[in-house]
Amino acid sequence: MTVETRHTDPALQAYLNSIGEPEHPVLTELRQRTATHRLGKMAIAREQAALLTWLARLTGAKRYLEIGVFTGYSSTAMALAMGIDAEITACDISVTHTDTARETWQAAGVAHNITLYLQPALITLDHLISSGEDGSYDIALIDADKPPTPQYYERCLQLVRSGGIIAIDNILLGGRVMKPSENGSPPSLNILREFNRSLPRDTRITPITLPVGDGLTLLLKK
Ligand SMILES: C[S@@+](CC[C@H](N)C(=O)[O-])C[C@H]1O[C@@H](n2cnc3c(N)ncnc32)[C@H](O)[C@@H]1O
User: Fold this and answer.
1) What is the 67 CA–ligand 1 centroid distance (Å)?
2) pLDDT tens digits, residue range 53-66?
3) How many Å lie between the centroid of ligand 1 and the Cα of residue 204?
């Protein structure tokens, strides 16, 4: 959830977007349609999708796991980039938001590539693990509710293959993660602060966080 890069001048970002890969018309339409939505800022920024799809192409990714679908911007972008044999597992709890995602998948011709689980993502991830899908995903994106981020991460670490990527959005929480903790801070702030602090010591991954969107962390699984 970001919609725009916070740490770059908007005019510069618009210019950078204009010299990158053109946005697919279905995605442009979805972005414009979602912008008027009360929760419009929940979709990932165009430049975040551009980076993730570039990585998908670079790594030849075929299996993608998404936690947090909303109206389908990131899942559609990934499906279009990954090609006809892409297999996408998508997790969300909102029928309303994902009805728009389903329409978008149809419009983009990628609906047959995507399996949507409409239940809390932790239940879906545990189901995938118990079904023997460990190590079978090339890329995962964590972009849902923030408090379970460490639990989502641990499960994605099981489900993503060695050499695969776990991406996590909104890791900066608008820059609040860098400021000292105050009384009354929401639990998600302290959880994300602790989580971010744990990354350099985590020997299972190689972490990098880019100031794209509201902070996009990329974890390369060893
Ligand atoms: C930030 S939006 C995802 C944006 C999406 N990646 C995109 O590019 O449009 C977060 C989504 O997570 C979903 N969500 C919230 N809590 C969840 C949970 N416990 N399990 C699964 N999905 C959840 C919300 O319904 C919402 O659609």
Assistant:
1) 7
2) 999 999 999 999 99
3) 26
